[in-house]
Amino acid sequence: MDFGELFRESNGEPITYKNKVVIIGDKVILPTKSVSLLVEFISTKSEYKQGIVLGTNKGDFEIDGERLPTKRIIMWETAIPKQVKVTVNTKDKILFVYNAWESTNHLGNKVTDYGYYGAAMIAEKVNETTTIYHCNDGYPDDDFDDLIFKVEIEPVL
Asked: Fewest CB within 10 A of the end CB: N or C in the chain?
């Protein structure tokens, strides 16, 4: 299934596919301007390296006490532990969540892709603070198992 075409028709808005709401990425309204996330890679099933993109409009991140002065981070399945704690500091309490994958372009260079080429996610709300994301990378199919990950939100006290 080419979700890219469906998202172009919907102007990037969520679509319904097989009775499921499918999104390109998730815009999460956080309970406070500073939260701690427990991010867990549950599984991957793709020939492409999979990753998680977290982003803010205005803010930064911390992992293992190290401040990352950037509005967007990518965590690759091969580079971080299965579970990682991430602190998000935002000015507007908005967090963006995407799945990413690494592919090779026509010049043979590795590139990171997310948010297009048919990328799609199903956000399964487990409870008020926990979401499991079932993701397709940009290569057309509709099994939503290329990457499955969980994000739990905890306010920072």
From this structure: C
What confidence score (pLDDT) does residue 157 get? 61
Phi, psi for residue 8 in degrees, rounded to 5: -65, -40
CA 39-86-90 angle, to 5 degrees, is 120
Report the pLDDT averaged over residues 88-108: 93
23 and 119 Cβ atoms separated by less than 8 Å: no
Distance from C-alpha of 26 to C-alpha of 122, rounded to nearest angstrom: 9
* 65 pLDDT above the threshold of 90: no
Q: Is the pTM of this model over 0.85?
A: yes
Phi, psi of 7 (to 5 degrees): -70, -35
Question: Are 76 and 49 spatial neighbours (Cβ–Cβ below 8 Å)?
Answer: yes
Look up residue 81 and give its amino acid: P
Whole-number Å distance between alpha carbons of 135 and 147: 5
